[in-house]
Write a structure and sequence with these properties.
This protein is mainly α and about 150 residues long. The chain contains 7 helices and 3 strands; from the N terminus they run H-H-E-H-H-E-E-H-H-H. The chain has a 3-stranded antiparallel β-sheet with strand order 1-3-2. The two termini are about 30 Å apart.
């Protein structure tokens, strides 16, 4: 494909990824409200990580993956622990180590998140063949692993 004749012109790949991220944010916020999910859009990353991990994760690992400061993450996790969507537990051998895990109540929203993500991905890749979609997922997976 000749990038000069595309809709985006010669815009860099980072700009494209930023645009898609912003579009997903708008779509996610709309869907969270429509489905009455008690999770803020800006905190959806926390739940996506916890759904993916499907087991408890150490607080400092979560802070690293989600790129949040420990103090910010502490406030956010406390909020959702109060709502019983996540659980915070201390390590029995070292009380300084805190683990975060999704609760049964929090898991109720996994299907919604899967549907929201799937619907957006389907829309975003609607002009691509199945092979190209799989190739894109493979490339994005390789890219993200550079950072986590």
């Amino acid at each position: 494909m000749d990038i000069k004749n595309s809709v985006i012109g010669e815009t860099c790949a980072i700009g494209i990824m930023t645009y898609i991220t912003e579009e997903f944010g708008v779509y996610l916020e709309k869907e969270l409200k429509r489905r009455k999910i008690p999770i803020q859009r800006k905190h959806a990353g926390l739940f996506m990580i916890l759904f993916f991990k499907s087991n408890k994760i150490e607080f400092k690992e979560l802070a690293h993956i989600w790129r949040k400061s420990k103090s910010t993450l502490c406030d956010i996790t406390s909020k959702y622990a109060d709502q019983k969507l996540i659980k915070k537990t201390n390590c029995c051998s070292d009380k300084r180590n805190v683990y975060i895990e999704i609760t049964e109540e929090g898991l109720k929203y996994k299907k919604d998140f899967d549907e929201i993500s799937g619907d957006f991905l389907e829309k975003a890749t609607s002009t691509l063949s199945k092979d190209k979609v799989e190739e894109l997922k493979f490339i994005l997976d390789k890219m993200i692993k550079v950072f986590i």
